[in-house]
Design goal:
Elements lengths: L1 E6 L5 H9 L14 H10 L3 E7 L2 E10 L6 E8 L5 H19 L3 E5 L7 H6 L3 E12 L2 E11 H8 L1
Parallel strand pairs: 4-5
Antiparallel strand pairs: 1-2, 2-3, 3-4, 5-7, 6-7
Length: 163
């Protein structure tokens, strides 16, 4: 059974340590100077909501979301999985998270921003996320600007396909 648990980083030091160990540009500021306190500040400043993904009481990763400041029916999402997580089940975890978050927040649309070397993107594409736009020179990573594609999933059509 897959469950999501909302976590508060101010009360969960272990989760903060785990999050800071992931190689992600979702909340990274600068890989050279990033530390737990800088990551915590960015997560708080950008109002990123974090859920723990558990499968039969085993913590398999995190689901991150950020409600758009401009459209409350749109949410930015990502997932972070531990190396020991069974990749064959990751699509199921992402799908379960999308369904659960849609029901909690009544979200119409989901956006996944592609990161550098984003091995998780395939799980989002498998459940219906489609590339809609590429922001040119949007990410500044390791001294270079990078393009950043954005992928979209319509929440209503996703649930309709699931029935």
């Amino acid at each position: 059974m897959i469950t999501l648990s909302k976590i508060s980083l101010s009360h969960d030091e272990e989760a903060m340590k785990q999050l800071s160990s992931f190689d992600t540009t979702y909340f990274s500021i600068n890989p050279i100077i990033d530390n737990e306190s800088l990551i915590f500040k960015k997560i708080e400043d950008e109002q990123i909501i974090i859920y723990s993904i558990n499968d039969k009481d085993v913590h398999v990763g995190f689901f991150l979301l950020q409600i758009s400041n401009y459209n409350k029916a749109l949410i930015y999402v990502d997932s972070l999985f531990f190396q020991h997580t069974d990749t064959a089940r990751c699509q199921e975890y992402v799908e379960n998270c999308i369904v659960t978050i849609k029901s909690i927040y009544n979200i119409d649309g989901f956006v996944k921003r592609k990161e550098l070397d984003d091995r998780r993107l395939i799980f989002f594409e498998m459940i219906g996320f489609e590339k809609v736009v590429t922001l040119r020179k949007h990410l500044f990573v390791k001294g270079h600007y990078q393009d950043q594609p954005h992928y979209y999933l319509n929440g209503e059509s996703f649930l309709w396909k699931k029935k």
